[in-house]
Please model this.
Amino acid sequence: MSIKLDWQIESEQTHTRATEDPLVRQRRRRAQRRFALLVLVMAGVLALIVALVIWRLRSVDERLRKDLVRTVQAEIAALRVGDFANYMAIQRSASDAFMQAQSRRFQDYQQLKQAGRVQLSGDVVNVAIDGRRGRVVLEEELDGVPYRQVWFYWYYTDSGDGMGGWRHVPDDLTFWGAERTLDLPGGGSVRYRELDEPYAQAIAEALPNWWAELCAALRCDPPPPPQIEIVPQRPFALSWDGDGWTLRVSSPLVERVRADAPLPPNFAQALVEALATRLVRYTAGDDPAPYYTDIAWLRAELGRWAAAQVLGTAGSPFIDSLSATFGPGAPLTLLSALTPTATLESALSAVTGVPMEQLSQDQLNSLAWGDFFQWRLALEPQLLVEGESNAFLALYAQEDNYAASQAAIRLEDRRYALQPPPTVQSVLITHERGRTFATVSAAHYDADGVLLQQQTIYWWLSGGTWRRLG
Model:
């Protein structure tokens, strides 16, 4: 028999008093179960409502998607059978220019069909819908090669005029998907929008090798890796961000683009040439040169040459002819002379060892001058449009009265700036009475490639470059 102290007795009494009534506990647990069941039922109902809403939205989206695909296929069918009325009924815009452009597109397709050059499969390889905006990527075959292009649509509500539904509308380049970035392991990156993901992936895989091989061809110290930014913009362009290392390039899909390679060949070549030209500038001291100078042209030609070393494509005829005449080291020797203050003559003299006037006619004619004079002819209207009057006048031999008068007339003639430049067909260099001249045979063609006029244009070697005589 044990003796309990007072504090033990009080503790047992307190414990006894704290004991809950079993019936109360049972009722509380039953209430808790009912509440939990109610919560589960409400959650289930809410989940069902959400599922129904999602199903409804997906059902609507799927219906809109199917309607859009049917509209596109109807449009392609109208092109295929030559039904102009039904084709134009699918086009809609407040812009007369767009409607006229679509009419021309219809005629262009009919001409391609008649020539047996196009196969309109109507295959839709990508569809995107954002509210009432629609975007499709179509595939077609042109000259036996698969191509893709992007068309845009808008969903119009039916107001009783039978004009509701999807209609082909002007391009909306803001509807190109979300922005994304691929960071490259060795530095550099590729920024793009969702629609350009296949091209961004291909560029990201090829860029490190391109960069290393271009630098090896130009024997330059490796610069910072470039940042490539693919943007939906027209007209197609490649441009460097000032003195930095960011290259902005238009999306290939802003125009009809080949679909038989990860990167369209022309796009890849233009991209590598832009990278190479930037490395040429970097290797030559990283000083910019105005686009209308001979040095800018020579840098671009060296870029074409370096790109050809990497891609195995056709390079620069001028640089290739310089190598053939003066040795394989000519490109790198020329590169070392391309300072911003250099002239065409001083740069070439670094390769030849003598001024251009002292080269024989055979040596001068061994160089492929055609691209240079074609560039000069295309440069004239560009300078006029951009208001670069001093640079325009500097293209002419101002010491010659006839040349100076022709330059002054063309400077004020707006029609001259709007004319397409003639196409250079041949160049002949001659020495006459102590002077050096270039006689250029050129041809004017219309939009259909029909010859309109032959023209002979003369240049004179003066002041370290070729200057036009008339």
About this structure: The domain at 60-169 is CATH 3.10.450 (Nuclear Transport Factor 2; Chain: A,). Residues 22-81 form the longest helix (60 residues). The two ends are 136 Å apart (CA to CA). The chain has 15 helices and 14 strands.
